[in-house]
Amino acid sequence: MSELLSLEGDARGVYTLTFGRPEVRNAFNPQAFTEIADACGVVAADDSARALVITGEGVAFSAGGDFDSLQALLDGDTAFAEAELRHANDGVLALAGLEIPTVAAINGDAFGGGAAVSLATDFRIMSNTARLGFVFARLGLAGADTGATWWLSRLVGPARAMEIVTLGAVFSADEALSKGLVTEVAPASTFEEAVDRFTDRLSALAPMAARGNKLAFLGIEDRSIAEQLDHEAAIQARVIGSSDFREGLAATREKRQPIFRGH
After folding, report:
1. Domain-located, residue 67
2. What is the pLDDT of residue 217?
3. Residue 2 pLDDT more than 80?
4. Closest CA to 183 of 121, 91, 133
5. What's the pLDDT at 103?
6. Do 63 and 125 lie in a common domain?
7. 224 and 195 share a domain?
8. Could you give the number of structural domains in the chain?
9. Quick one: how far is CA 105 from the chain centroid?
10. Burial of 9 (0-12, 13-18, 19+ CB in 10 A)
11. In a domain, 191, yes or no
12. pLDDT at 191
């Protein structure tokens, strides 16, 4: 896409979006969030897409906001700062709203906005040498940034989330796993293989079923139980009408592995 981000797809239908500023530990600037949103648009338009992985080039996942961008926020007025932050939020929302499974491959440190962006994915695989740091407070900033408070509240509860952002917590990979912030921890030496194994599992799923799961959870906090049940019924009815469900049922009866084709 540019020198900031690259997007590549493979034969499995798995896309990989790589943050490509290793010289600044893949720190984000406004253009990076524009390109995140653009990349998500490309993936969303591909009916053959099965999953999206986001990761960083080099030794870091992302250090968060880059210093030049932070200085620009400091030098501008409140209206400018709010506009820039809302622009960044568009990238986060595009990632969170994808209807296919998303994975953050946290190959190295993820700090500040980088940590928050990783939480916007469905699954997080973390290198055992990486750290996950919500360090806004250490810069004199609130943790109210790129969805950090929202994701943390869902994962660990409001009280624990408040503690994390207020005290600027930094977690090792094992600590992040124990607190439910990541899905899996993998050795740095075999990290890429671990990500491939995980995405193999995702790409082998029945695509309509996987998308149905995403649609069931997207916006769930705004629906009552009755509304959610109606929403689930509509989703499941569409999936039941698919050839993949027919294949899954036949494979179960025949005691073999199903082969899902996405329709």
Report:
1. yes
2. 96
3. no
4. 121
5. 98
6. yes
7. no
8. 2
9. 9
10. middle
11. yes
12. 98
Establish if 242 belongs to a structural domain: yes
Mean pLDDT across the chain = 96
The backbone torsions φ and ψ at residue 247, rounded to the nearest 5 degrees and listed phi first, read -65, -45
pLDDT at 1: 62
- Sequence letter at residue 15: Y
Burial class (CB in 10 A: 0-12, 13-18, 19+), 77: exposed
Q: Quick one: which of 24, 27, 15, 87 has its CA closest to 51?
A: 15
Give the rounded distance of the alpha carbon of 254 from its chain centre: 36
How distant is the alpha carbon of residue 165 from its chain centre? 19
Does 154 share its domain with 170?
yes
Torsion sign (Cα): 68, 69, 71, 72: positive
Q: Which domain holds residue 86?
A: 5-203
Percent of the chain at pLDDT > 70 equals: 100
Residue 30 resides in a domain? yes
* pLDDT tens figures, 126-145: 999 999 999 999 999 999 99
Q: Are residues 183 and 217 in the same domain?
A: no
Place of tokens 């149905």: 212
Cβ contact 91:37 at 8 Å: yes
C-alpha Rg value of the chain to the nearest Å: 19
Please check whether residues 169 and 233 belong to one and the same domain: no
| pLDDT value, residue 262 | 81
The predicted-structure confidence for 240-262, as pLDDT tens digits, reads as follows: 999 999 999 999 999 999 999 88
Residue with tokens 């790129």: 146
Give the per-residue pLDDT at 261. Answer: 86
**Residue 210 tokens, joined:** 């996987």
